[in-house]
Amino acid sequence: MILVTGGAGFIGANFVLDWLGESDEPIVNLDKLTYAGNLANLGQLKGDARHIFVHGDIGDRALVEKALATHRPRAIVNFAAESHVDRSIHGPAPFIETNVVGTFSLLEQTRSFYTALAPSEQASFRFVHVSTDEVYGSLGPDDRPFSEATAYAPNSPYAASKAAADHLARAYVHTYGLPVLTTNCSNNYGPRQFPEKLIPLMIHNALAGKALPVYGDGSNVRDWLYVGDHCAAIRTVLERGRPGETYNIGGKAERTNVDVVRTLCRILTELKPGRDYASQITFVRDRPGHDRRYAIDAGKITRELAWKPRESFESGLARTVRWYLENTTWLAGVTSGDYLKWTELNYPVEATS
Ligand code: NAD
Ligand code: TYD
């Protein structure tokens, strides 16, 4: 069996569902259930003995030690993290706690588990550390996309905490020979994403008749990848990646934020007519230190492991909007409590146009 951390969050839950859709190999899911963790994401697995949920923190040494000793996974995929840049600006401490100290602790426990394995088990053991393209910093309009050789230059507390974790992962390969593989992926979107991130936030606000808050002038660029394609890439790295290597993953889909929001409005008009969604677009105060552009060169994973995305940005976005339209109960369930407090803090009434 394999163990994933953070499997009740957006990408982790999609990974767990895809994994069990593709194979019968059981999966242990260790998650702290922060505001971003939601077992409703995995509701369809109720009663499925192949999914074992462990409620806990990756930084809890005793709990992780016990989970490893009990389940003896052949691999670990580390999704657990605080993942939202704006939250890291308002309060960086949990990002350091989970992304840096938590990852360190998980690596330590994994090292101790790995050291005690038989040589044949060690040979096939893998630890996949899931990271982000944000560790590379910001690109100018004509710069080449990030490659695995691009120097780290993280700009937000989130990016810095993930960069620190990546460095620890690297050090555990070089110092202890732990078979870690690191993936650095661009912005994901798709079903089950918490509506604090650009795409689900815009879908949620559009349907609720609220403002669509575009930061600054909306010209910042991100590369977008459908979450199912990211999950397939991680499975590929787990199966065929070379231990110690890093792999950049991206969708070859660079878009300005305002383009993304306009495209979403067009799709919504087709699928749920009756409202002039684009008229809800509102330009608001920019994010402090807002990175201008991210772009990924995914040539290495394509060449070496034969992975490439299946969804185009337009097809993936249409699938995503359809999912949110069909899952209004899910959306209603997560748009309460902490989320409401967060939107009050992050979006004070301050439209600039
Ligand atoms: P998410 O915020 O939706 O989910 C994070 C999950 O981790 C939640 O279920 C949460 O409960 C859990 N968690 C948080 N702290 C924990 C802890 N201390 N112990 C155990 N569980 C904990 O995040 P996501 O968008 O699914 O991202 C997953 C991973 O992928 C993260 O490592 C993130 O940095 C990386 N990533 C995300 C994107 C993206 O666009 N979302 C892109 C590239 C990489
Ligand atoms: P986000 O989804 O938070 O991902 P990241 O910051 O990790 O790239 O934001 C994506 C882009 O959208 C980013 O340039 C910030 C911008 N953005 C807005 O313009 N308005 C919003 O309300 C949010 C959440 C993001």
Short description:
Helices cover 44% and strands 16% of the residues.
Care to describe what's here?
The chain has 353 residues and is α/β, with parallel strands linked by helices. It has a domain at 2-192 and 226-252 and 290-313: NAD(P)-binding Rossmann-like Domain (Rossmann fold), CATH 3.40.50.720. It has helices at residues 10-22, 61-71, 85-90, 93-115, 119-124, 157-176, 198-208, 227-240, 257-271, 299-305, 313-326, 328-334, 338-346; strands at residues 2-5, 27-31, 51-55, 75-78, 126-132, 180-185, 187-189, 212-215, 221-226, 246-249, 254-256, 281-284. A seven-stranded parallel beta sheet has the order 3-2-1-4-5-6-10, with helices on both faces. A three-stranded mixed beta sheet has the order 7-9-11. The model has no long low-confidence stretch (mean pLDDT 96). Residues 5-6, 8-12, 31-34, 36-37, 57-59, 79-81, 83, 98, 102, 130, 132, 162, 185, 187-188, 194 line the site of nicotinamide-adenine-dinucleotide. Residues 85, 187, 197-198, 201, 213-215, 220, 222, 257, 287 line the site of thymidine-5'-diphosphate.
How far apart are the first and last residues' alpha carbons, in Å?
53 Å
Radius of gyration: 20 Å
- By oligomeric state, this entry counts as single chain
Q: Class of the domain at 2-192 and 226-252 and 290-313 in CATH?
A: Alpha Beta
> Number of DSSP helices?
13
CATH superfamily of the domain at 2-192 and 226-252 and 290-313: NAD(P)-binding Rossmann-like Domain
Strand order of the largest sheet: 3-2-1-4-5-6-10
The rough form would be described as globular
Extended strand count: 12
Q: What is the residue-averaged pLDDT?
A: 96
- Helix and strand composition category: alpha/beta
| CATH domain fold name of the domain at 2-192 and 226-252 and 290-313 | Rossmann fold
Q: Using the 3D structure, state the CATH architecture of the domain at 2-192 and 226-252 and 290-313.
A: 3-Layer(aba) Sandwich
Order of H and E elements = EHEEHEHHHEHEEHEEHEEHEHHHH
